[in-house]
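In response to reviewer comment 3 from the previous cycle, which asked for concrete evidence that the modeling workflow produces usable outputs, we include below a single protein chain processed end to end. The sequence was submitted unchanged, and the resulting C-alpha cells are shown without manual editing.
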Amino acid sequence: LFFFGRGGGGGVGGGLFFFFFFVSSSSSGFCFFFSEVMDDNNLNDEIDRLSNELLEKSDLLRSMRRGEAERCDSAAIASAKMEVKDLNRRLGSLLRRRDAGVDKDEGVFDRVGTESLMKRRFFVTPSFEIYGGIAGLYDYGPPGCSVKSNLVQVWKNHFVVQESMLEIEGTCLTPEPVLKASGHVDRFTDLMVKDTETQECYRADHILKAQLEKIIDDAATAEDRKEDAEGVLAVLDELDADDMDDAIKTWDVRATETGNKLSAAFPFNLMFGTQIGPSGLVKGFLRPETAQGIFVNFKRLLDFNGSRLPFACAQIGLSFRNEIAPRAGLLRVREFMQAEIEHFVHPQKKNHAKFDSVKDYSLALFPRRQQLTTRTTVQTTIGDAVANGIIDNETLAFYIARTSMFCEKVGLNKDHIRFREHLENEMAHYATECWDLEVNCSHGWIECAGLADRSCYDLQSHSESSKIELSAREIYSEVKTVEYLKALPNKGVMGKEFKKDAQLVMKALESMSEDKVASTQSQFDSGAESVSVEVADGRSFSVTKDMISYEKAIKKESGMNYYPSVIEPSFGVGRILYCIFEHSYYVREGDDEARGVLRFPPIVAPIKAAVLPLSKNEVFNPIATRVGQALGACGLIYRIDDTGASIGKRCVQNLNRFALQTSFLSLRGFNTCWP
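The workflow returned the following C-alpha cells.
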C-alpha cells in the first residue's frame, strides 16, 4: 500500500502592492472644477486636505448622533450630513483622477480559469440550465456540494462548538408583522428602473454607474464633464429616487440591450412575498436574513440559558433576496446560505471572557481614519486595536479575530483579507459600529461577512411590536437607593405638534437613559432651540424646550431590566466559497490552462483521498475495496478510481487532497507511504 500527498507547485503567489504618496503641506483653497490640470504634488496636497476635513466632519456627525455635541437637533444633523456628502463627492472625484493612470494588477486571480473549471467539473452550474437558466440561481454539483458542506461544518466547529454557542433552526417563511417590526418591509429596497419599451428591469445605481464609467474612460470626453461624472460616482450610494432621475436624464442613461429610454426610478422591495395558508389572508415573505428567527426566540433562549448573559446563538440556513439584476455569479444570488451569530451582552459590559486568547493575534484592519487619510490598511494586534480605540469593545474584537482565524483555516490567503470599518455615512441607523470582512479576488475587494454592534434595536422593536417584553434583568447584590434625572414630556404641546406620533416620542423620552436625559438638558442649557429624539422605528423628531421639563427623583432598586446589545457576525457562505475557489486555483507548471487545479486545504477538500489501483487488473479490487471501507468508517469521503489512466492524471481528476495507490507490493503485504 503506497500513501502519498499530492504536491504543490504554483498556487496563489506574490502579492498585491499598493503605493501611495502624500505630501504634507497647507493648501491655499479649493475649487471643484479646475481650470487647469493639477500636478501630482498639488493633487495629493488637495486630497490630503480634503481627507482631514472629511474625517473631522465625520467625527462631528458621529458625536451629534450620539447626543455628545453642542448641537444635536435634527436640522444640525441634516446640515452635517450634507457637508459630509459633499466632501465625499469632492474627494472621490480627486481620487479617481489621481488613480486614473494606475495599472491594476489583474494577474493575481484568474476568474476565467476558475469559473471554467468550476463549471466543467460540476462544482456549480446555473439552475434549470436546459430551460435557459434563471439569473441569480445556481445548483451545486457533487464536488461543490461537498466543499460547501465541509465549509459549513468547519464554521460550525470553529464557532458553535468551540465557543459553546446555542443553535436554532428557524423557518424560512416569515409573517409580515415580524419583518415590519425589523424594518425590512419599509426599508429593504433598491432603486429600480425599467426599459420603457420592453419592461426589462435594471438596478438604477448599477446602470448609472456603468454609463458614468464609460464617459470617464472615453478619451474624447472633456475634462470638466469627466469631473462632473466623477462627482456623481462618488455619492452614487446616497442618491434618492429624485436625485437618481435627475442623474439618469443628465447623463442620458439608456437601457443596456436596446438603447431605449428608462422609466422613473422607484424603490423595489427585495423580499420574495408569498401567502401563508390556503385563504391567502396571511401575508408573508421568504426570510431575507436568518437573524430575525433568533431575535423573536430571545425570551426562550434566555430561559434555556438560565437567564444568564452574555450568551450567543447561531443559525445556519437559506435566505432569499429578489435581486433586481444579479450578474456576478455566486457573489450576487437570489437564494443563498447564511451563517449568523447573535451575541447578547449587557450594553455597558462588552468585555469578553476569552479575549486574552486572541489579543496577540495580528491582522489587517482598514479603519475609518485610514480610509479617509492614508488609504492603506494597518497591521496590528487585536489587543492593541482595542487599547487604541480602533475597535470599540472586546466582544466585537474577539469575533473579528476568530473570523480571521476561520478564513485562514478554510484556505483564504491572509495577504488578501482585511477588515474594513464602515464610514459614518454607511452606518445603519441602529448600529454603533460595523466592520466588514473583505476578501480580495478578481472582482476586487468583496464583502464576505459583516460584524456589527447592533445595539438593542432589534429586541426593542420586536418588544414594542409584539407587546412581549424581550428584555433581560440584572439582579444587584443589595438594594440600591438611586437618585436619577427624569424627563417629563408636556403632553399637550407634544400632542399638538406630533399628533399621532406623540405617543412614540413620549415613549422614547420615558425610556431614555439617564445619560441621554442629562445630555438633552445640557443642550437646552447651552442655548439649543431643540434636541433630536429618535423613536423606535428609526425616525427622529425635534423636541423643543417647551415640550419637556426635568426633575430629580429617588427610587430603590433590587435590579434593573434592560435590552441587551447584540454583537452580530453574519457570514455569506456562497461568497466565502467563491473566494476559496479563486484563492485555491492555479495552473500546473508547464501545462496549458486546461490543467487548472484547485489546491484546497484538506479540511474543505471535496474528496479527502482517492484510492488508485495501479492498473485495471481485477486482482487489485479486493484491497482497494477494503481501503475504501476503512476510509469511510473514519468519516472520510473517498473515491476508488480504476479507470487505468496515469496516476498523476487520476490525482487531478478526482479533486482529492491525498492519494492511496494499490500495487503488487500491496498484495505481498508491503506498506510504504510518503508525502
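The longest strand covers residues 472-489. We consider this sufficient to address the reviewer's concern, and the full set will be provided in the supplementary archive.
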